[in-house]
Design a protein that fits this description.
elongated; single chain; two-stranded antiparallel sheet; Alpha-Beta Plaits; mainly alpha; about 5% strand
Amino acid sequence: MKKAVIARRFSQAFFLILFVYILWSTTYPLAGLLPPGTFFNIDPLLMIMTSLSSRVILPGFVVALGMLVLTLILGRFFCGWICPLGTSIDAVNLLRKQSSRKLSDAQNRVLSLPKFLILAAVGIAALLGRQIAWIFDPVVLMARFISLNLIPAVTASLNTFFIFLIRDLKFEGAVRDLYRSLKPTLLGVKTDFFSNAGVILAYFLAVVAVSLVISRFWCRSLCPLGALYALAGRFAPFRRVIDRCIKCQQCSNECRTGAIKKDLSYIRGECILCMDCIYTCPEQGIRFGFRGGASEPPSVAADDEPKGGISRKQFLVLLASSFAILGFRRTEGKSAAAVASGGGADIIRPPAALTENEFTDRCVRCGNCMKVCITNGLQPVMLETGYSGIWTPRLVPEIGYCEYQCTLCGRTCPTGAIPPLNLEQKLKIRLGTAEVDRSICLPWAEGKECIVCQEHCPVPEKAIILDREGPVGLGRPRISEELCVGCGICQNKCPVRPRRAIRVSPTGADRT
């Protein structure tokens, strides 16, 4: 039996299920067995680069360093045994009807280079105070797909299915009871809509689909976390050992990351410990261990690492990427058009979010806050705040308001971009200020009675005041800026369409 491969697949399945479970259980109330940031805290790329760019030490920093220490001993085991994106890529690879294209050593060497350049670029950006690890980090990429694509699709499909069974097919009893039992758990996530979800899905599908052409292409060529683990595991004592070899090159041909060269030596930092080579060897002459045997056939030189440093061409590529990062300028929360015109982007950030530059640096675009928002009001930004703000969260009151007594977004943020708040703190936090557009407000513009905004205002003292004027005492709403917290429920409930007569702007928001 392929015991090592079975063990690896079991490990991959376990950690993928655990990853999905943690994200799925990150809802109201927070009832998961593990904290929402568990996987993010063991991600050294995310923790180190975010800490470096923000000039703070994040809580997960020490845990992430522990993962690097394990990699120094065991090698790049995370990529082959734990990484949820790597597991998804391997699952997609099962769809291939034939083996991927065989590549030469030179081609494999070229393919492995970009991830190191990307890692260097991410590091340079962090030193300059700009965190861009979120673009390529596999844990974030997978979390974003699960939170903003997979969970909404599954919950919407199951809801539609149960409603069809109960309402149209008249199934009652056990079916209705099952549906009710699933509502607070599996179907308890309110995610009716996420803007830009199609772009997020397309990015994820591109990452996994390219492996149908070249196995583990993302892992071997583009993943900066893989590059970090490759550097850390380059001289790991746990290694591939060859006891006997007939030089059939089966292991080299089947290696999913191109770690085994044609002369049957191997690049330790590129090996993800998939263990496939153990079972492709017709002589059963390969094993993994800490000692004993040789790491390559006797006729091969003992040095199993590629010789030579970075070439002149590679240096120029890195230099060019550095200049590109310098052009990845902060835009102070403004869109490209707004920057050109001197205006600001009129978006509302989550409660107590860090100041704009710090927020876009610290936010890793994992989607936790958006998925956990109980009104579905937090939505991913596209270009409204410039390139540096892509996929960061904003509150869209037309879709959902900020629940007055909800503190979930800050409690699920893995990096503190949205600080955790207790209920007493949350009730005092301002997201912005509401403003009445008297030109379209029904009482102001048409003399019609409407007190919807005032009725829904959650502030006990009521931040919306009705001025009674005229012989019939018509109530005309105005805002008490001292009391308004900018939650957006008034804008959400306003009956005027298409443009709401009362709208919230980020003016006066409490940004820490």
